[in-house]
Amino acid sequence: xxxxxxxxxxxxxxxxxxxxxxxxxxxxxxxxxxxxxxxxxxxxxxxxxxxxxxxxxxxxxxxxxxxxxxxxxxxxxxxxxxxxxxxxxxxxxxxxxxxxxxxxxxxxxxxxxxxxxxxxxxxxxxxxxxxxxxxxxxxxxxxxxxxxxxxxxxxxxxxxxxxxxxxxxxxxxxxxxxxxxxxxxxxxxxxxxxxxxxxxxxxxxxxxxxxxxxxxxxxxxxxxxx
Length: 226
Fold this sequence. Notes:
This protein has a single domain, classed as Pseudouridine synthase, CATH 3.30.2350.10. Helix content is 16%, strand content 34%. The protein is built from 4 helices and 11 strands; from the N terminus they run E-E-H-E-E-H-E-E-E-E-E-H-E-E-H.
């Protein structure tokens, strides 16, 4: 069971590992939501099926904060908050190339190739494309790499991966979007660092932050400055 970052009667957030599936798929591998259900059943001695709503997802090779709903009320309200952009999501990515600007908001149009499970990026709208926007900021550098903080303004499939690749900054380890080598553990160097929202029931501000992975690459950026 991965690290619990937040838990109450309505929501539970965990730190997804880069190998975890957010939700079950055709691979048949045990998914993170199944692990969380087992944890809840054991901790609270709940017989039968445990309710757990998938609020949002992270790509399998991505690490970081992932939020689930423990009640149908919380699920419906969180779904609406995500739909109406009331949830602030902050990511960190490690890239080889310095971005063209130290801080910028970029907007593109993304179109999915279903067979390749890959997003293609266009500067202008094309048939079947969806608008995607994010703001990035250069936050650190090491001898060989740069750390970029990203705030999403839309939630498109593979959005960060595709948009950073479009500006010449594919994420370390992301072969699908142009990085030349994979990471040894199969991950990509992208993490969902923080999620902020108003609690759907308590109406309090909630900020949930995932810790850095314990490896040399990420540790190099713990105290890095631009």
